[in-house]
Design a protein that fits this description.
Bound molecules: S-adenosylmethionine
Strand content: 15-25%
CATH architecture of the largest domain: 3-Layer(aba) Sandwich
CATH superfamily of the largest domain: Vaccinia Virus protein VP39
Strand order of the largest sheet: 3-2-1-4-5-7-6
Distance between the termini: 18 Å
Length: about 250
């Protein structure tokens, strides 16, 4: 990873929000000749298929497992509208019991994006989720970064919430915070290694994007592409990564 940091074409759904994740995931999938005819992907907590549908459009077969019936209904509509319904399916289920709905060891790839922040126990959840991944299978984890919330709250003038997030061991910005926890880069790596992953890369997602002033992207036609390139260039630099809104970890199951 990291050898080619030129953005691959990002589908419009991803826009600025997930361009780094999309680029890195595509690079990891494209680099593996075993996936040339399509990988079997399980998207745990995949919601309405924002990632599942474009992955299916690349030829992969994706199972989204999510507890929300509404999200799964939206997934079904989105897959049908995009013409990939035959390669996308939804299953109601939970990360902590993924093997109840997906055969153990059957997945080439597991996505666990923006889910570890909301489950009861991230280590137990991830351990259970990994049961469905074959040995050496690819695992992509996206999680909220505890440092970013402090900066975001402070920049929006919510200094007490910033202070709370800075002091809280779970990185929560007070009791009304919708997330149960956030991770520092070393915490996410330690969690991944503790459940049996070999970590290949850790990147910051949206180092700058969420800080850009409204209107800055409309300055000229190249601004969005330039910001994407900037994000990719900075994503693995520890100083910049430390402040990214999210952290993207790629690893494989040992
Ligand atoms: C913030 S959304 C993320 C959706 C998608 N993965 C993404 O990155 O855009 C969190 C998703 O996790 C799902 N979720 C919540 N608790 C879960 C659990 N215990 N196991 C699996 N998914 C869960 C929610 O229903 C929701 O679709």
């Amino acid at each position: 990873m990291g050898s080619n940091r030129t953005p691959s074409s990002v589908p419009s759904w991803a826009s600025q929000r997930l361009s780094t994740v999309w680029h890195e995931l595509r690079q990891a999938l494209d680099a593996n000749p075993e996936f040339a005819d399509g990988a079997t992907v399980v998207d745990a907590g995949g919601g309405s298929g924002g990632l599942a549908v474009p992955l299916a459009a690349l030829g992969h077969t994706v199972v989204v497992v999510d507890p929300s019936p509404d999200a799964l209904a939206a997934l079904e509509r989105r897959a049908a509208e995009s013409g990939v319904a035959e390669r996308v399916s939804g299953q109601q289920g939970d990360l902590s019991s993924l093997a109840d709905v997906v055969a153990p060891g059957s997945a080439d790839v597991l996505l666990c994006h923006a889910v570890l922040e909301v489950v009861d126990d991230p280590a137990d959840g991830l351990t259970a989720g990994l049961e469905v991944v074959r040995r050496d299978g690819l695992v992509s984890i996206l999680s909220a970064n505890r440092h970013a919330v402090v900066v975001a709250r402070a920049l929006s003038g919510r200094f007490a919430a910033a202070e709370a997030a800075l002091a809280d061991p779970d990185g929560r910005a007070g009791p009304a915070d919708r997330l149960l926890r956030r991770f520092a880069p070393d915490e996410l790596v330690a969690l991944a290694e503790s459940v049996g992953l070999t970590v290949h890369s850790l990147s910051g997602v949206r180092v700058f994007t969420d800080l850009v002033a409204a209107g800055a992207l409309d300055v000229d036609v190249d601004a969005r592409a330039a910001l994407e390139r900037l994000e990719l260039a900075a994503a693995t630099d520890p100083a910049f990564r430390a402040l990214a809104t999210q952290l993207h970890l790629l690893g494989s199951r040992r």
